[in-house]
Amino acid sequence: MCRHSQIIAALGCLTALAIAGCAANGGATPAAAPATQPQAHGIAFGPGWLQKDGILYHVPHYMATRGHVVPNSSGLTYGGGPVEVKPKVFLIFWDYAKYGDSEHVKPLLENYIGNMGGSAHNNIYTQYYEILHGKTIYIKNPSSQYGGAWEDNTSIPRQPTDAQVAAEALKGVAHFGYDANASYVVATPHGRSTAGFGTQWCADQGATSSHGRLVSYTNLPYIPDAGANCGANYLTPPSDETAADEGVTIVEGHMQGDSVTDPDPPSGWQFQGSGDIGDICAWYDIANDPFGAYSYTMQPMFSNATQSCVQSY
Questions:
Q1: Cα–Cα distance measured from residue 302 to residue 75, given in angstroms and rounded to the nearest whole number
Q2: pLDDT tens-digit map of 86-141
């Protein structure tokens, strides 16, 4: 459900934000028969884009903590914008060395991202597409989607703002290079997270601009800090995780799906008024999914083909 006033109070935003499946889209909903976007990864600037502290970024889209309710939906519709047709993930560990990693989140993220490519779970996204110059281009599920990890040991604020996280994502672009199909995951360390984490939301998906090009990024706090609110002890974990950190793959899996199918919200695939591919299925039917020789705790994602939440496709 939308709780705009609570999020504004918590985060001090001037633009109404959305949580639990609501996008900050200025009241616009995706069109069922959209016009073709002339440049796949250009930016459709409009409602929701802000300029602050020298950074241009889109108001983030939040994955809510456990216990929220998302309205029923008849399916995802396409808004005419880009998707990530050849998905890739770059991990940016911001000041992890200083604050420690007692729950081993860094190696878990590296292993999970390294093994998700080609999986039945990530195959869910292959039913979605973008339309460019009249051509329909479907999302692929390559076996290798891990672009690498970088430890940025520059100091992180106690509560980094949305603009500061967007700026860190741009530092990741400078480090790794620009990839139009990539999600740049800004992983913040223990005890250092944007306001509202763990009480109202578990992670957020953002977008910013690098020389006029779209950059999709995720603000991924230290998920074990939120305990059960963000997935700890949800179910008996697989051998590749612990009860304390199984929320890491639940949350990052959700955010990856959002980034792949809707990197410039709400121009990609959205529920009308109810958010992205993972929102309608968040905290529902959680399971331990196989990823080759590994297994990780995951939420299902929405399939238009079956009009249901599924763990594989």
A1: 8
A2: 999 999 999 999 999 999 999 999 999 999 999 999 999 999 999 999 999 999 99
Domain of residue 144, residue span = 4-310
Number of residues in the chain: 313
Handedness of CA 251, 252, 254, 259 (dihedral sign): positive
In this predicted structure, the answer to whether residue 24 has a pLDDT above a threshold of 50 is no
For the CA atoms of the chain, what is the radius of gyration? Answer: 17
Q: Does 291 score more than 80 pLDDT? A: yes
| 213-220 and 182-187 beta bridge pairing | parallel
Q: In whole angstroms, what separates CA 203 from the centre of its chain?
A: 7
Alpha helices (H) in 241-283, listed in sequence order: 246-261
Q: What pLDDT is recorded for position 67?
A: 84
Predicted TM-score (pTM) of this structure: 0.87
Burial of 161 (0-12, 13-18, 19+ CB in 10 A): middle
74 CB burial (10 A radius; 0-12, 13-18, 19+)? exposed
CA nearest neighbour of 238 among 142, 63, 115: 115
b vs e for 12-49, b when ≥16 Cβ sit within 10 Å of the residue's Cβ?
A: ebeebbbbbbbbbbeeeebeeeeeebeebbbbeeeebb
User: What CA–CA distance (Å, rounded) separates 140 from 119?
Assistant: 11
Domain count for the chain:
1
**Do 192 and 99 meet the contact criterion of CB atoms below 8 Å apart?**
yes
Q: Across the chain, which distance is largest between two alpha carbons, in Å?
A: 50
Residue whose C-alpha is closest to residue 223's, from 206, 242, 240, 244: 244
